[in-house]
Write a structure and sequence with these properties.
This protein has 367 residues and is of the alpha/beta class. It contains 14 helices and twelve strands. It binds nicotinamide-adenine-dinucleotide and thymidine-5'-diphospho-beta-D-xylose (TDX).
Length: 367
C-alpha cells in the first residue's frame, strides 16, 4: 500500500526521478497521481517518460515544466493538485559541473529546496498526514580512508560545491521538522546506476564512449571507491521510507557494493565484449578497426579537484527498521544497465547531439 495520493515528484525528468515514476506506476499498490515538476535543464529528459505518459494518460500522470525556485508557483501547484507528498529529487547533480560553475547549484539545490519547504509549510499548515521527503546523498559526509563507513550520525564534511549545497539543503529540511513540525524524512544514498543515467556520470559515460570507440577518461589513479546501488533499489528504499519511515528521521541507503573506478571500467569492458563484441560493433569497425579490446580505450586524465577518495555507507538502520535491502547485486545490475544502453542507442544519441554536446564543447575541451 502506498499511502500518499497526490505525489509531487520534483526532478522527475532526471535519472532517478524518472525511474521512480516508472517504479510507482509499475507498482499495483500505488493508485494515486504523480505530478512531475521539472524545469528541464540539460539533465531533464521527457523521453525517459514517454511510455508512462502514453500508458497512464492524463488521469494519473501530470507534467509541469516549472522551476522549484519559484515559490509562488510551487504553492499554486500544491493547491491545484492537492499535493500530499513531495519526493524532492530536483537538483544540479554533477560534481564536475559544480566545480566549473557552482552558482546554479546554490540556486537550485539550496534556494529551490527552501522555496519548496516554504510552499509545503504554507500549503499544509500543520497537517500531519503529509510528507516532504528529501533525497540527499552520502557525499554530505565527506570522504573516507581505506576503512570505516558513513552512519546516519556521521558529522557532515562536504568537499565539493555540489555536496556542500546538498548538505545545506538537508540542514534546512531538518530545521523545518524541528521548528515548524513539518513531517519530513531524509535519505542519504550512495552512487546510483541504471537506465536513463545521463552520460556525463562514470558508468553511462564509459558505456556510451566504449560503444563509440571513444577514450574512457579515468581521473587520477582510478583507485577512488564508490558504493554502487542499482537505481530500482533506491526506488524501493524511498518507497519504504515514505510508507513506514519515522518522521524527522534520516536513513542511509547503499548498495553494499564497493568498487574502485578501475574495477568498474574493467567490468564494463568485459561485459560489453560479451554483449556487444568488438567484431559486431559497426562504429569500431569504421573508426578504430585495429582496436583489440574495449579496455584499450582507457585513458588516465587529470584528477578531479578535491576528488573524494572513498564513499561507503552503512545502511543497517533501514534494513533493520524498515526491512529494506538492496535486491540487485553489482554484476547483474551492471549487465542489465549495459544491455539497456545497447538496446537504446537513440537515447544517448539524442542527448549527445543536443544541449549536452554544446556544453561539452564549451567547457570540456581541455580534457
Ligand atoms: P539528474 O541530474 O539526472 O536530474 C535532476 C533533475 O532535476 C533534472 O530532470 C532537471 O531538469 C531537474 N531540475 C534541475 N534544476 C531544477 C529546477 N531549478 N527546478 C526544477 N527542476 C530542476 O539527477 P539524479 O542523478 O536523478 O539525482 C536526483 C537526486 O538524487 C538529486 O537530488 C541528487 O542529489 C540525488 N542523488 C543522486 C545520486 C546519484 O548517484 N545520481 C546519489 C545520491 C543522491
Ligand atoms: O569521466 C569520469 N572519470 C572518472 O574517473 C567521471 C565522470 C567520473 N570519474 C570518477 C569520479 C568518481 O570517483 O568516477 C567516480 C564517479 O563519478 P561520478 O559518476 O561523477 O559520480 P560522483 O562524483 O561519485 O557523484 C555521484 O554519486 C553521488 C552523483 O553524481 C551524485 O549526484 C551523487 O550524490
Amino acid at each position: 500500500m502506498f499511502l500518499p495520493n497526490n505525489i509531487m515528484v520534483t526532478g522527475g525528468a532526471g535519472f532517478i526521478g524518472s525511474n521512480f515514476i516508472h517504479y510507482l506506476f509499475n507498482n499495483p499498490d500505488f493508485q494515486g497521481r504523480v505530478i512531475n515538476v521539472d524545469s528541464l535543464t540539460y539533465a531533464g529528459n521527457l523521453e525517459n517518460l514517454t511510455e508512462i505518459a502514453a500508458s497512464v494518460g492524463e488521469k494519473r500522470y501530470f507534467f509541469e515544466k516549472a522551476d522549484i525556485c519559484d515559490g509562488e508557483l510551487m504553492e499554486a501547484l500544491f493547491k491545484k493538485y492537492e499535493v500530499d507528498a513531495v519526493i524532492h529529487f530536483a537538483a544540479e547533480s554533477h560534481v564536475d559541473r559544480s566545480i566549473y560553475g557552482p552558482q546554479e547549484f546554490i540556486r537550485t539545490n539550496i534556494m529551490g529546496t527552501f522555496a519548496l519547504l516554504e510552499a509545503s509549510r504554507k500549503s499544509w499548515a500543520g497537517r500531519k498526514d503529509v510528507l516532504f521527503h528529501y533525497v540527499s546523498t552520502d557525499e554530505v559526509y565527506g570522504s573516507l580512508g581505506e576503512t570505516g563507513y558513513f552512519y546516519e550520525d556521521t558529522s557532515f564534511d562536504p568537499r565539493s560545491p555540489y555536496s556542500a549545497s546538498k548538505a545545506s539543503a538537508e540542514h534546512l529540511v531538518k530545521s523545518y521538522f524541528h521548528t515548524y513540525g513539518l513531517p519530513v524524512t531524509v535519505s542519504n544514498c550512495s552512487n546510483n546506476y541504471g537506465p536513463y543515467h545521463f552520460p556525463e556520470k562514470l558508468i553511462p559515460l564509459m558505456v556510451a564512449n566504449a560503444m563509440e570507440a571513444k577514450p574512457l577518461p579515468i581521473y587520477g589513479d582510478g583507485k577512488n571507491v564508490r558504493d554502487w546501488l542499482y537505481v530500482e533499489d533506491h526506488c524501493t528504499a524511498i518507497s519504504a521510507i515514505v510508507n513506514r519511515g519515522v518522521r524527522g528521521e534520516v536513513y542511509n541507503i547503499g548498495g553494499e557494493s564497493e568498487k574502485n573506478n578501475l574495477e568498474v571500467v574493467h567490468t564494463i569492458c568485459e561485459v560489453l565484449e560479451e554483449l556487444y563484441p568488438l567484431k559486431d560493433n559497426p562504429v569500431v569497425k569504421e573508426v578504430s578497426p585495429g582496436l583489440g579490446a574495449y579496455e584499450e580505450l582507457v585513458t588516465f586524465v587529470k584528477d578531479r579537484p578535491g576528488h573524494d577518495r572513498r564513499y561507503a555507507v552503512n545502511c543497517d538502520k533501514i534494513k533493520k527498521e524498515l526491512g529494506w535491502s538492496p535486491g540487485t547485486d553489482f554484476p547483474s545490475g551492471l549487465r542489465k544497465t549495459i544491455q539497456w544502453y545497447i538496446d537504446n542507442p537513440g537515447w544517448v544519441e539524442n542527448i549527445r547531439s543536443g544541449e549536452y554536446k554544446k556544453w561539452l564543447e564549451k567547457n570540456y575541451d581541455s580534457r
